[in-house]
């Protein structure tokens, strides 16, 4: 009985701390110990110890431990998949995979350099009034699917959908030197995607320091970004209608973009006032009705 108990405890201790391959080695080692102890008892004390019961105990203990391990592994995998699915709503797949393994809570307070883009569907109120609810939702869903696809392909973060628009960021949560370039490229890809549709988009883009993390109460919270950069990007998107522009980008953000093809067609607008802000802002914008190639507006 003592040998059975020792064998079972040893199996539980050894198997519970090993990988499946190593567990087989532990099991074989313990079986060898039992057989050796039986032979030693015969040689030294002329005692015939039973070996069937200890070996059966080893096998039962091994089966129980492996079954428990399998349940725990599956539970951990389901939890990880759930975390990855939640993170996948905001971050590109590669970033979501890395963040899924982080156990520390991401509270609001981390400050990073980022490029922020506000995206809005122009004339959404009239669209909702004109269409049936299901048809209007299908239109918005088509836009949201494209926003998600393009932003993730460019390595951006989908912070949230805002009714008929979206807030996205580049350089969040991981800083990147080409955040402004990636943001402008994503914006122009979206404009090209809906260029031949009846849908018009208006976007505002700015770069600077933002607060990053989770905000909310005890049971409900969400990932978000805050700061003056976010506010200015929202204001830039707001003046797009005043300029009849599809895209408005701050001069500070455009200074970070070295790709001349992405700057093509942008028109400079110096010292423009922004609602709710002191001072004036230099900006560039892409006209909604693009001028012909060679027009002075391109220069």
What topology emerges from the helices and strands here?
Elements: H1 2-15, H2 20-45, H3 52-87, H4 93-100, E1 110-121, H5 124-130, H6 133-153, E2 157-162, E3 165-170, H7 179-193, E4 201-216, E5 221-226, H8 228-238, H9 240-243, E6 245-250, H10 251-254, H11 260-263, E7 266-273, E8 280-287
Parallel strand pairs: 4-6
Antiparallel strand pairs: 1-3, 1-4, 2-3, 4-5, 6-8, 7-8
Strand content: 15-25%
Distance between the termini: 93 Å
> Portion of residues in helices?
40-55%
Low-confidence stretches: 290-299
The Rg value, from CA coordinates, equals: 31 Å
How many separate helices?
11
Q: Can you put this structure into words, describing what you see?
A:
The chain is an alpha+beta fold. Helices cover 50% and strands 23% of the residues. Strands 1, 2, 3, 4, 5, 6, 7 and 8 form an 8-stranded mixed β-sheet that branches. α1 (2-15) packs antiparallel against α2 and α3 (52-87) packs across α4. It is elongated. The N and C termini lie far apart (93 Å). 28% of the residues are buried. Mean pLDDT is 80; it is low at 290-299.
Summary tags:
alpha+beta, disordered C terminus, 50% helix
């Amino acid at each position: 009985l003592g040998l059975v108990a020792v064998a079972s405890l040893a199996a539980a201790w050894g198997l519970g701390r090993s990988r499946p391959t190593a567990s087989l080695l532990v099991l074989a080692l313990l079986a060898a110990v039992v057989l050796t102890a039986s032979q030693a008892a015969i040689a030294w004390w002329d005692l015939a110890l039973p070996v069937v019961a200890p070996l059966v105990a080893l096998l039962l203990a091994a089966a129980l431990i492996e079954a428990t391990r399998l349940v725990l592994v599956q539970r951990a995998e389901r939890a990880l998949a759930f975390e990855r699915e939640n993170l996948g709503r905001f971050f590109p797949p590669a970033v979501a995979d890395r963040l899924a393994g982080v156990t520390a809570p991401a509270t609001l307070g981390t400050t990073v350099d980022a490029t922020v883009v506000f995206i809005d569907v122009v004339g959404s109120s009239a669209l909702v009034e004109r269409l049936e609810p299901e048809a209007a939702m299908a239109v918005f869903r088509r836009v949201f699917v494209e926003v998600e696809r393009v932003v993730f392909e460019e390595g951006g973060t989908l912070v949230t959908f805002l009714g008929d628009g979206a807030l996205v960021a580049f350089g969040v949560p991981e800083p990147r030197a080409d955040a402004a370039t990636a943001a402008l490229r994503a914006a122009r890809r979206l404009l090209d995607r809906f260029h031949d549709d009846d849908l018009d988009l208006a976007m505002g883009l700015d770069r600077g320091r933002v607060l990053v993390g989770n905000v909310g109460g005890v049971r409900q919270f969400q990932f978000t970004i805050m700061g003056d950069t976010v506010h200015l990007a929202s204001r830039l998107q707001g003046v797009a209608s005043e300029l009849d522009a599809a895209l408005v980008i701050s001069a500070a953000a455009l200074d970070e973009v070295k790709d001349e093809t992405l700057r093509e067609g942008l028109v400079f607008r110096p010292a423009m006032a922004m609602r709710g802000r002191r001072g004036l802002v230099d900006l560039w914008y892409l006209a909604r009705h693009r001028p012909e190639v060679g027009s002075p507006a391109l220069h």
